[in-house]
Amino acid sequence: MRSRWEPAWAQVQRRAFSHWASLCALRASVVIAVDAERAIRLPHLHAAYALLILPQISLATSASRALLPDRYSRADAVFTAQHAALLGAALASGSLKHLREAMRDRLHQPYRARSIPGLSEALTYDATGVIGIALSGAGPTLLALLERRADAAQISSALQGCFAKHSVPSSVLRLTFARRGLLLRNA
Q1: Is 0.85 surpassed by the pTM of this model?
Q2: Which of 148, 168, 180 is nearest to 30 (CA)?
Q3: Which tens digit of pLDDT belongs to each residue from 129-164?
Q4: pLDDT value at residue 95
Q5: Is 23 within a domain?
Q6: CB atoms within 10 A of CB 151
Q7: Per-residue burial over 11-21, b = 16 or more CB atoms within 10 Å of its CB, e = otherwise
Q8: Which residues lie across from 40 on neighbouring strands?
Q9: Quick one: how many helices (H) and strands (E) in the chain?
């Protein structure tokens, strides 16, 4: 199978398409998937949109994976499993009020923050209209989910400021959730 991407989409996909909680939310309906055979399309997030903050640093996925420990504490594993379940339930029910908490993580974000200057501050940023913030995949891209009424310019500026404090420039993409989603066709 191959996908039919928009011409500029390939760059966004490489930098931001996330394995985080198996959530595929960019330019598509939200889908939670284990693989192509086991996927569930969730209700359209009509009340939200996404900001991607792309710090201008190089962090290969292999290098990002090497930052993770070989073992985790039971408390951290339970915390993250509970939050992943909350994430799925919040998205399936359309109840966005729990996404902020559901997007917290103890298995990868704290370890990867050491190599992404400004990430720790960005993950704790809060403002009116912010639904949740998380590291996208192995990073360094940051995913922020916002309510439609949120001040995207102010929030973008603040999140970029978290990285700028560490002399890391960044760019921002604003994405809406498409009702139809990404089409995959057999080659």
Answers
A1: no
A2: 180
A3: 999 999 988 889 999 999 999 999 999 999 999 999
A4: 81
A5: no
A6: 14
A7: ebeeebbbebb
A8: 32
A9: 7, 9
Q: Give the per-residue pLDDT at 96.
A: 85
**Token digits of residue 17:** 């398409």
Number of domains in the chain: 1
| Strand-pair category, 184-185 with 142-147 | unpaired
How distant, in Å, are the alpha carbons of 18, 47, 77, 112 from that of 81? 17, 26, 6, 19
Q: Does residue 80 form part of some domain?
A: yes
Distance, in Å, from the CA atom of 138 to the CA atom of 18, rounded to the nearest integer, reads 8
Domain presence at residue 39: no
pLDDT of residue 24: 41
Q: Is 38 exposed, middle or buried (0-12, 13-18, 19+ CB in 10 A)?
A: exposed
The torsion defined by the Cα of 121, 124, 130 and 132, in degrees rounded to 10, comes to: 110
